[in-house]
Please model this.
Amino acid sequence: MLVFGVEVPLVEIVFVLAIISGLLLLEAAIVIMLLMKQMNKAKKVLELVENLSATILSIKKAEIEELDRLKPVRKV
Model:
């Protein structure tokens, strides 16, 4: 087979393409693993933020109840 005017055996071309395909597959697998790790970290952060917002909300409710309790009763 002629490649750019140079005679190259077909077996070697297939071998080089197989190596390139293997490297691309390996790179894709590594990228997918890194994305999965990042997705798990993001999920944990989301759970922590939800927990924090629920805690802040309960604290605010407790503060409002305490302020309502301390507020003097007005006579109308």
Q: What stands out?
A: The helical segments are 10-70. The mean pLDDT is 90. DSSP finds one helix and two strands in the chain. Residues 61 and 67 are 10 Å apart (CA to CA).
